[in-house]
Write a structure and sequence with these properties.
The complex is a heterodimer. Chain A is an all-alpha fold. Chain A has five helices and no strands. Chain A has helices spanning 2-23, 36-60, 74-94, 96-110, 116-137. In chain A, helix 1 packs antiparallel against helix 2 (36-60). By secondary structure, chain B is mostly helical. Helix content of chain B is 74%, strand content 1%. Chain B has helices spanning 2-12, 15-33, 39-46, 55-80, 91-100, 104-136, 142-159, 164-179, 204-223, 241-246, 248-263, 268-283, 296-311, 313-319, 325-336, 343-348, 350-373, 375-382, 386-405, 409-426, 431-454, 461-464, 466-500, and strands spanning 181-182, 189-190. Chain B has a two-stranded antiparallel sheet with strand order 1-2. The longest helix of chain B has 35 residues, at 466-500. Chain B is globular. The chains are: A mainly alpha, B mainly alpha. At the A-B interface, helix 1, helix 2, helix 3, helix 4 and helix 5 of A face helix 8, strand 2, helix 9, helix 19 and helix 20 of B.
Chain lengths: 148, 503
């Protein structure tokens, strides 16, 4: 995990810098509070910075955990992530009842199931159950999109 | 005391409470049986549904899920040698051997009965310890609560997972996430990047669903996890009283170990189950049967993981420090309903605490009945192929996240934290520490600032008060311990290599 530690360490340092910089944009709170709203975040930024440097130094010194994470199937995972992001972007406009079965069918297909009847039936069935539970029983206002 | 239990029983025995608990226990058994859905994930998935409920009912339902999942996990452990929850990992050893001998029904029956015994015993332990401890907690002021939060985070960071640096990074990241939004002390907005969405903070519930549940599903999808199907028909074969009497030592060990591990942050059901298994073998009259299908090898871990359901509530209810994933979700549910755990909870809203106590007793009885009846549906669900199961969970997660605020913001939070959790799991970071930072961030910061306000800015206030000084000293020791251990191991390794090297 040496390379991974190096990369995560550097990414964390970048995040720390952004976070610390943002802490200077906070307006001061009321006067009786000695620390103010920015002090605790800055303390955290300092701690995270030190820990991230430790992670990087340890990786450079070759003292990282030598075990490797298990291999992954990049294709299906990337496809599912893509579908989820597309869903989050489009669902409010397309509507829950149309977007959800497409997403679920896509996820099932991307994960390798090719029995079409099962695929379509499950995608529609799950959508129906979710709709009944959330929209009907719990009165959640799900976006109706084009079906409105 | 007795009036309070009567009050609790009044809440717990309302038809609605009973129905919700029944649904919770059933969902827990089914979720627990499915590999990939642990008790805490089953609870997280249910969290958005508990919004509109009375807080006491919501907590009882979630506790029901937790209790049910502990039994559900043993179904797959016994039938296909795949623990449905981490707590059932130790059950695989002898449970699956019993299955191979054709005694699956007996193994399931022992798991169910000893689990129920453990669960009911744990409620009594919970009451016996939490009520006095809540009085101790009365002596706590802001400095003590600050020190306790730091101590809890230090414990989780250093004892869960192997890497202290990564554990600490995870905890601090959680605290950082908690600072986004409106400053709890002055009302000033911070780290909102100019958006309104972040004013309310990083949605706690969405963040937990992402870190616990979505990251697990992502990991399983990426690694292509699969499991066997259950073939054949099974029924639960309850043990006779004589058989149960023979298991008394193993059950007792499960109760003791489950109590100890439930109290320790980061312990949880899995560790309790393994320690009980080992101890039960050590104290058994027939240790040679362990590993070859000993009923004691099922009884001990299954008692222990159910005992943890009650004892994990002790540090949560009295001090507001959750020691496990499931307790963290209970805390999130409390915060959602504006309930602050601690002594005030016992005094001001006894109906919630005592309702939970009585409710957990009822839920354990429900588990006994439902566990017996729900074996077939559980097996049917286990036989659902992974792509369909993951699609169902993702659908539930997305709608659940949306329903928190009727907005897409929470959906994005769930997906983003799911991805962060996936990367963290893969590279050895500590998700529980991050969640704990997220839920405790508010308490740690507010009490730090309140203490300094009271002490007129003198930081020594944390070290001149005995309880807070002791807690902070313990926190420092906890963080130093892994470093000391590492140095000692290094020295030993060097000594060995020096001794074996040719002179």
């Amino acid at each position: 995990m040496r390379r991974a530690d190096l990369i995560t360490g550097l990414a964390l340092l970048a995040f720390t810098a952004l976070y610390a910089q943002q802490s200077f944009l906070i307006r001061r709170g009321f006067a009786s509070d000695r620390l103010g709203p920015a002090a605790f975040p800055r303390l955290l930024a300092l701690t995270l910075g030190v820990l991230a440097v430790l992670l990087v130094v340890r990786a450079l010194a070759g003292r990282s955990d030598p075990s490797r994470p298990p291999a992954i199937r990049g294709g299906p995972f990337a496809a599912v992530l893509g579908l989820l992001v597309a869903y989050a972007l489009l669902m409010p406009r397309v509507g829950f009842l149309l977007a959800t079965p497409i997403l679920l069918g896509g996820v099932i297909y991307a994960l390798g199931l090719r029995a079409w009847l099962t695929l379509v039936g499950t995608a529609l069935g799950i959508t129906a159950v979710l709709y009944i539970v959330f929209a009907r029983a719990l009165h959640v206002l799900l976006p109706m999109g084009v079906l409105r | 005391m007795i009036e309070r239990f009567a009050l609790g029983a009044q809440i717990a025995f309302q038809p609605l409470s009973l129905l919700m608990m029944l649904l919770g226990v059933a969902w827990g058994i089914l979720g627990g049986a499915m590999p990939g859905i642990s008790g805490s994930i089953a609870m997280a998935l249910l969290l958005p549904l508990t919004f509109g409920m009375d807080p006491a009912v919501a907590l009882m339902m979630l506790a029901g899920v937790y209790i049910g999942a502990m039994y559900g996990g043993s179904i797959t452990a016994i039938l296909i040698s795949t623990p449905g929850t981490p707590g059932a990992a130790a059950t695989v050893i002898d449970g699956y051997e019993l299955h191979k001998k054709g005694q699956s029904g007996k193994a399931l029956g022992v798991s169910l009965i000893t689990g129920t015994i453990g669960g009911i015993a744990s409620v009594f332990i919970l009451v016996a310890m939490a009520v006095p401890l809540s009085r101790v907690a009365l002596a706590f002021g802001p400095p003590e609560y600050f020190a306790l939060g730091v101590f809890g985070l230090a414990l989780i960071s250093s004892f869960v997972g192997r890497d202290l640096v990564k554990g600490a990074i995870s905890g601090v990241l959680g605290l950082i996430l908690a600072t986004a939004g409106t400053d709890p002390f002055s009302g000033t907005p911070r780290f909102t990047f100019g958006t309104i969405d972040l004013l309310g903070g990083v949605a706690l519930v969405a963040g937990m669903i992402g870190l616990f549940a979505v990251s697990e599903i992502f990991t399983r999808i990426a690694e292509g996890a699969n499991w066997e199907q259950v073939r054949g028909k099974y029924r639960t074969d309850l043990p006779t009283l004589l058989e149960l009497w023979k298991l008394r030592v193993a059950t007792f060990i499960g109760i003791v170990m489950g109590t100890i591990e439930g109290l320790l942050p980061g312990g949880g059901g899995a560790i309790a189950a393994f320690i009980s298994y080992n101890e039960a073998r050590r104290w058994s009259k027939t240790p040679e049967e362990f590993g070859h299908g000993a009923l004691e090898g099922v009884a001990a871990p299954e008692t222990a993981n159910n005992v943890v359901t009650g004892t994990a509530m002790i540090p949560l209810l009295t001090f507001g420090i959750p020691g496990s994933n499931s307790a963290a979700i209970m805390l999130a549910a409390m915060m959602l309903h504006g309930i602050q755990p601690g002594p005030a909870l016992f005094e001001r809203t006894p109906q919630i605490v005592y309702g939970l106590f009585v409710g957990m007793l009822v839920a354990n009885v429900m588990m006994l009945v439902l566990g017996y009846l729900a074996l077939r549906p559980s097996i049917a669900l286990v036989n659902v192929r992974p792509p369909l199961l993951y699609a169902g969970i993702l659908g539930l997660v997305l709608v659940g996240a949306y329903s928190i605020n009727n907005s897409m913001f929470e959906v994005w939070v769930v997906l983003a934290t799911g991805l962060v959790g996936f990367v963290m799991r893969r590279y050895g970071f500590n998700i529980l520490a991050m969640v704990l930072g997220l839920v405790l961030g508010f308490m740690v910061e507010v009490n730090l600032r309140r203490s300094l306000l009271i002490a007129l800015g003198n930081p020594w206030v944390f070290f001149t008060r005995p309880i807070s000084a002791a807690l902070l000293a313990l926190a420092i020791l906890t963080l130093l311990w892994p470093i000391v251990r590492q140095l000692r191991e290094d020295r030993r390794a060097r000594a060995v290599s020096a001794a074996s090297a040719p002179s």
